[in-house]
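Section 3.1: Structural characterization of target chains.
Under the original work plan, the team committed to producing a structural model for every single-chain target entering the pipeline before any wet-lab resources were allocated. The record below documents one such target. The sequence was received from the expression subgroup and is listed exactly as submitted; it comprises 158 residues.
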Amino acid sequence: MGETKPIPDDYPRVTPYLCVDGAADAIRFYSDVLGAVERGRLPGPDGMVAHAEIMIGDSLIMLSDEFPEMGAVGPHAVGGTPVTIMVYVEDVDATYAKALENGAGTIRPVQDQFYGDRTGMFEDPWGHRWTVGTHIEDVSMEEMERRMAAGMAEMTET
């Protein structure tokens, strides 16, 4: 047997971990909407998900059902979330529409952004917020700064 690695193979250094009141349904939602592929699941009591891992492209997300007695609660249990997960997709408009069709709520409709992405933000049925985007234009940092300043000036004029 070899030496145990401090960072295991096939795991990134940073991985979001979502607590979800209905993890099995959430996994289906993430599969249908974001193309997630489940790579493992540990069953918990009463059909709950004690731990699961999904891949969205080359990114890993871990999740489980809520276990309040262990301090593991989802956004609805604490009044919402300040965290948003960003996912690049091939077709942001189609992905956003599919999210809404599957029960997500609109936070910010899809629109072109000054930094070269077309993005929208939705809240999934379990209270987690997702920004989905498609890169549509390569923009230099200088041009991004110029566009941001112009946009801020417009906002202060109105």
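The first strand starts at residue 17 and ends at 20.
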